[in-house]
């Protein structure tokens, strides 16, 4: 419709040049029709695009109101004050055409230019904030986080160790963001934090990849929790490690400690009961595999594999 209106402007220009002038009301009606066909479709498109943006929509409405007032005022002056003369027809045509140009430029182009400029400004501001956040994160990592880690490793007080480790985790979460609650890697990190806080131990966590929590990944997370709990209770050491890797085909987890260990061939005792009930049974129930390797005096490894 907008392109048809532009074509009708060319036809109108030809008619003004080569045909007799009609009466003034007919001139006004023709100009309103032609300019309306040229402008209204574009303004309706702009209004649809700007819906929901209050600032741009307010600018659009003001320009439309100004254009309508200019067209109405020019037509009224030519009809009621100047009369049906060549001058009156010229004033009417010029005012309506100028109103159409104002509406086309002000109501269609300017709001889009405004939105584009605002988008560019917001992107630039977001980039600046990201750079500043990266600088702060680098500074805190090189100073505060390393100090907290050193305090946690050097102190012998359980409460100080727990406080330093918890503060380090909170600061890392603030700097690098918290994953979704339904995320497997987030669940592993949370249970590691719980074990550290409850038993005043240090768990070095290495996590590669992740996926949404489901029955199988929850079983792996529960088995990892039990492995760490057993190590914290019975291994006699304050440091242990967990490696968790998620691939397209399986979830792999390995919990290790270098504590007192135990004899896996013994079928009774707290170690073995916890392994059978809470680790092996939990994983195998969902089609996974659990293997426990332990040597008295050298530590324990619990390897878990869950096919996906």
From TrEMBL:
CDD domains in UniProt: HATPase_UhpB-NarQ-NarX-like
Record key words, sorted: Kinase, Membrane, Transferase, Transmembrane, Transmembrane helix, Two-component regulatory system
Parts of the chain that traverse the membrane: 25-47, 59-83, 89-117
Family annotation (Pfam families): HATPase_c
Tagged with keyword Transcription: no
GO MF annotations in UniProt: kinase activity
SUPFAM superfamilies listed in its UniProt record: ATPase domain of HSP90 chaperone/DNA topoisomerase II/histidine kinase
Domain Histidine kinase/HSP90-like ATPase: 222-308
Origin: domain of life: Bacteria
PANTHER family, sorted: NITRATE/NITRITE SENSOR PROTEIN NARX-RELATED (PTHR24421), OXYGEN SENSOR HISTIDINE KINASE NREB (PTHR24421:SF61)
Protein name: Signal transduction histidine kinase
């Amino acid at each position: 419709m907008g392109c048809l209106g532009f074509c009708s402007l060319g036809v109108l220009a030809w008619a003004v040049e080569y045909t007799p002038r009609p009466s003034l009301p007919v001139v006004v009606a023709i100009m309103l029709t032609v300019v309306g066909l040229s402008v209204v479709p574009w303004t309706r498109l702009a209004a649809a695009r700007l819906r929901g943006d209050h600032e741009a929509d307010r600018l659009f409405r003001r320009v439309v109101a100004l254009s309508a007032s200019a067209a109405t005022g020019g037509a009224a002056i030519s009809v009621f004050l100047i009369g049906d003369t060549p001058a009156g027809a010229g004033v009417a045509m010029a005012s309506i055409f100028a109103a159409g140009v104002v509406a086309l430029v002000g109501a269609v182009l300017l709001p889009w230019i405004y939105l584009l400029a605002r988008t560019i400004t917001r992107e630039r501001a977001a980039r600046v904030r990201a750079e500043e956040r990266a600088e702060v994160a680098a500074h805190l990592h090189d100073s505060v986080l390393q100090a907290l880690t050193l305090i946690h490793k050097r102190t012998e007080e359980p409460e100080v160790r727990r406080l330093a480790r918890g503060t380090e985790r909170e600061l890392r979460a603030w700097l690098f963001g918290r994953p979704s609650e339904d995320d497997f890697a987030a669940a592993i990190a949370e249970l590691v934090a719980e074990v550290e806080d409850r038993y005043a131990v240090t768990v070095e966590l290495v996590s590669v990849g992740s996926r949404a929590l489901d029955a199988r990944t929850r079983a792996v997370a529960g088995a990892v929790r039990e492995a760490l709990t057993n190590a914290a209770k019975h291994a006699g050491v304050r440091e242990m490690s967990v490696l968790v890797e998620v691939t397209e085909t399986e979830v792999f987890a390995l919990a290790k400690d270098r504590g007192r260990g135990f004899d896996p061939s013994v079928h009774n005792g707290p170690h073995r009961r916890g392994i059978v009930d809470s680790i092996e049974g939990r994983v195998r129930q969902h089609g996974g595999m659990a293997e426990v390797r332990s040597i008295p005096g050298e530590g324990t490894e619990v390897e878990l594999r869950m096919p996906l």
